[in-house]
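Journal club side-thread
Mid-discussion, someone asked how the predicted structure for our own chain would compare to the paper's figures. Pasting it here so we can look after the session.
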Amino acid sequence: MEEHLLQSIKQLLQRLIRLQEILKPFLYMEEHLLQSIKQLLQRLIHLQEILKPFLYMEEHLLQSIKQLLQRLIHLQEILKPFLYMEEHLLQRFKLLQFEQ
């Protein structure tokens, strides 16, 4: 019985060794994949640092456009009476021409 147990253990160990040999490439693949992921993350972090100023530029640009629009609206309000005045003057001029 002891002999049979030893034989079974020996067979089991041989199978485990074969399995280990089969799985070894996958271990290296996993290590390679982890290294690739690490490099990719480093590059993404670097890219993020490069793009960060543009994010702030975009925010600044949007704020500037907003201020410009507010000023244009204000200017439009200032000029509105002149538009009506011009229309009124054109009407008066037409009337004067018609009367002559």
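Post-session note: The chain has a mean pLDDT of 89.
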